[in-house]
């Protein structure tokens, strides 16, 4: 897939990484999950995102996920790969591996652990782009990296051809709309929301698509939502989003205090997928706890109400 | 206007407080501004919000604003009054004055300066409601009070009849959608967005209306946006919002570094209103700087492009 | 007491505001508390600080506290008065009242609720100084006002004669040392730490004194610590501080989750003072909860171990 | 060096990583720097800390630094190695390499990029300790990892034998004193401050030593400060610290806005070392800028005043 002709849009689920009880990558489950997504009609797949526990997997495990995904998907849809590390040279090393493995695009955050600023962050993206011949998405996720990418910088990087777009998980809808509006004229620049429950509003405002973690659990719902929006049927899009927003309440099943906020959401997605029979178990990477029997029971009720069991 | 029968919805601009060069309330300008809003067809007016520089006005100036607004509006639309102070008893004292002056509803934040928690915040709203016989709106503005009101607490307070709704300036669209979805069944509970550039998306997602500072400058635009959304004409709503988003770029006219972020937005609104001839000058409360000639010239160009001069 | 000749140093406890069960100022208890402090040999008294629940008291209650304190102290030691409000003109109004009531100095924070910056904050202090003829202390308390006062700004304001010193509750010891070092040559500029458990280290580093909330409970201990440090007996100062640090564990008596962080510390001080018979009860301002019987029992044990009962 | 018998105390500089113009590790300069430190009488050396740009070096460069340091030091003083990565399993992989290379101890932070909590963080340290047979230090650095390690957790981990101590770069002196006081009875538990300008106060309060980045530039000064404190000569300790605090002003030489806060401090240390002829150049890791000629000139003046040129 060549850089020039690929455009990115639609539903691109950030795929969770199923694990065995021993904490190793469960490639069989991963392949079943990928198949479910493709059958549902998603427009792309994003592995090794935050939802994929990229920050927790070892280098070997990351390589295994990428290899499995690219091999199994076989070019049916583009595969985007997260290249998360603290700073530029470390990201480039990881990105080079993703390129060699056959990724269609890479997704990188601002530097973290580093005490950085906007100028360094722009240099960071420019250096990654210069070093790695793949479409590069900027992943705006202040809750993890503790800096925000400004619309002005993102649009400038888009204009230079440094980035092919943005995955916005900033939770800042004002900034998101400014980005959409200011990038409206740019070619080959895609803006995705990473938030599960505002996809209808974001699409109305002009977003190119969504990267919703909840799509792991219900890709068909998000595909319907996307197609309704494409057809201009906003009432239907809103109704589908309302249904998915109710489904999203599974992330509140984990007992607060027992399970961290990071583990709660991902743990809920994995548990729902296990209940649906897509993946074998709901094991989380260390040091996160997996959801327990009682929390699983709560999720089961929500899935039943949603007609997903 | 009795508590039982009033419902709140639509466009409710948070009115800026025009000042004379000496820093006193310019009541004549305030009346002209209120008239412009009513003529444009707004559904309510909110005085002494953050846009009204409530945190900067003295007690006497606040009283003057309330008296002027309620007198001039004369019941044509409901007047909501901000009752901002640090903690419960201080808010109640201010709210009692608003009630005596004839306010139709009051708007209160969580405690600030205080090092507080969710339980105290809920008690805070319950105590205000118990003490003051007026519809009470919770104003969620973490950028100023440094705590976030959770959807669960707000829905619970709504269910108890403590609050009549929420003005959300949290910038957190995920929380906003959860609030909309979880309060969907509640009667007499209105959810407003306070963000200027996402009103189309928020209305699609089910918001009751908007409290956009930019409506000071262009109330007709927001009224058109609201009416398009009410009619289910989402393409028109989006187009109007795009136009207003471009207009919102006036807040970027102030030179970064010269003017604080707090002064930039409000200063831009006041300057635009002065350019439009609605208010006499663009003076800001101390210690904020007013926009200068060069910044004013930048705003003039944007207004001309928007056809507002 | 004239501005020119007063210098400030030593132990200046931030006095809690005793309340009756009904939440009114308990002036009799307040007078007993002030007497205890003076008998212990403190060098000044600070009323209406955060420890005095300044953010929670109504205007009338604040006036009552100031009047009671200044009347009862009768010039034996200087009385500093907190003049807390959101922005410049509101602070000036409060400060003018403190001056009329006979305060020896006033203590003001940066603007809060406001979205401000360093330039506005400097203007804020300059305007207060210009308007109110009293020594002005800058109170650096980012945990409440959410901005930090830089050493460079504080030293500049000191050099201009705008501020007479700083009460540092920033919890940032690096900044504190830079402030001490950079202000080392300034006349009539006093730097106080507001932190109870690092007074020995701060005095070694050159601080002018301390404003420790825990001194409400054990003023004699802090006076001994101060005198040891003055005598260059650092081992004795450290030993006294260690004892007071153990005593400070009373702030951990309140059950986490039941009582807010803001209420826990002040509630512990009030409860200890009630147990010591200095004040009548441990009532807190709304919406804060007062410490309960079980929490009080925990504090009693600590006081007994400290030989304070 | 066996785990049982090593105790850690005194001055343990966090060694910067000299780079060639091409951005590769300059091992010759590194060896000269290590020699300077040992000659000055430091008590240990810490490589691959934040000052060592651990977050910026590639895996190969990190290995080169560890190998060079352990080889060159040859057991004269203990060598602590930073094992920074996002989460538990990734840290263990890095730590295992440090152990094989001959490290005397390892230093790990809380998880980052992860959205974690206190329970996960404790599990994280316990798992690292269980997997890697080396003394483990907890590195408390909220400005980078965005969570704070509580004294209670650290003392509990010390009691369990999980950690051998703490490097505190939290900037929270209250928490630091609580940690010192609560760990006072623990054997084999060392508490180091990571802040350059408060070492005298921290040692008075009972700290085991310091890990000051500025000691790269002037190890002799910190060794004198440590020895004065050990001898109970607090006036001398304070005077030496005042001198070092003045020297620390080199971190303000970089032009604000041109160089990030992260690059300013480290860049100043490298530049000062280059001016002193200890290392060859002041190159920083990408994407950080190196200090320029004008900034270097400013630092030169400070070094001259300090008698270090």
Blueprint of the fold:
Four copies of one chain form a homotetramer.
Chain A: E1 10-11, H1 27-40, E2 45-47, H2 59-73, E3 79-82, H3 88-101, E4 105-109, H4 118-131, E5 136-140, H5 142-145, H6 151-159, E6 165-168, H7 173-182, E7 190-193, H8 199-204, E8 209-210, H9 219-230, H10 234-247, H11 261-275, H12 293-305
Parallel strand pairs in A: 1-8, 2-3, 3-4, 4-5, 5-6, 6-7, 7-8
Helix pairs in contact in A: 1-2, 3-4, 6-7, 9-10, 11-12
Structural summary, described in words:
Four copies of one chain form a homotetramer. Chain A has 309 residues and is α/β, with parallel strands linked by helices. Chain A has one domain (10-233): TIM Barrel (Alpha-Beta Barrel). Chain A contains twelve helices and eight strands. In chain A, strands 1-8-7-6-5-4-3-2 form an eight-stranded parallel beta sheet. In chain A, β2 (45-47), α2 (59-73) and β3 form a beta-alpha-beta unit. In chain A, α6 (151-159) packs parallel to α7, α9 (219-230) packs antiparallel against α10 and α11 packs across α12 (293-305). The first copy, chain A, starts with 9 loop residues before the first strand and ends with a helix. The model of chain A is unreliable at 1-5 (pLDDT under 50). The interface between A and D is large, with 39 and 39 residues.
């Amino acid at each position: 897939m060549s850089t020039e002709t690929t455009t990115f849009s639609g539903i691109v689920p950030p795929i969770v990484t199923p694990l065995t009880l021993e904490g190793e990558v469960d490639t069989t489950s991963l392949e079943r999950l990928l198949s479910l997504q493709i059958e549902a009609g998603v427009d792309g797949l994003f592995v090794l995102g935050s939802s994929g526990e990229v920050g927790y997997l070892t280098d070997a495990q990351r390589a295994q996920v990428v290899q499995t995904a690219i091999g199994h998907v076989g070019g049916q849809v583009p595969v985007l790969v997260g290249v998360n590390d603290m700073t530029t040279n470390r990201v480039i090393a990881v990105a080079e591996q993703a390129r060699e493995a056959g990724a269609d695009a890479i997704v990188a955050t601002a530097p973290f652990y580093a005490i950085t600023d906007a100028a360094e962050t722009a240099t960071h993206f420019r250096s990654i782009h210069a070093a790695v011949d793949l479409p590069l998405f900027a992943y705006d996720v202040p809750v993890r990296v503790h800096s925000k990418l400004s619309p002005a910088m993102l649009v400038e990087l888009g204009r230079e051809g440094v980035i092919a777009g943005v995955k916005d998980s900033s939770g800042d809808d004002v900034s998101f709309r400014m980005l959409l509006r200011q990038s409206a004229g740019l070619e080959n620049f895609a803006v995705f929301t990473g938030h599960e429950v505002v996809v209808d509003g974001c699409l109305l405002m002009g977003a190119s698509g969504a990267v919703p973690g909840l799509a792991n659990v219900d890709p068909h719902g998000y595909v319907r939502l996307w197609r309704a929006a494409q057809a201009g049927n906003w009432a239907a899009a809103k109704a589908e989003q309302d249904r998915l927003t109710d489904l999203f309440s599974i992330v509140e099943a984990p007992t607060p205090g027992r399970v961290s906020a990071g583990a709660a959401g991902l743990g809920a997605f994995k548990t729902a997928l296990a209940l649906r029979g897509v993946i074998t178990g709901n094991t989380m990477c260390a040091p996160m706890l997996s959801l327990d029997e009682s929390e699983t029971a709560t999720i089961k009720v929500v899935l039943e109400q949603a007609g997903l069991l």
